[in-house]
Amino acid sequence: MAGSIVAIDWTLAVQAVNFLVFMVLINKFLFQPLLNLMEEREKELGSHHSEVEALRKKAEELLKEVDELLNGAKAKAKKIIDEAVKEAKAERDRILKAAQEEATAKVEEAKKEIWQGFESEKAKIEAEAEKIADEVVRKILGKKAA
Question: How many CA atoms lie within 13 A of 2 on its CB side?
Answer without folding.
Answer: 0
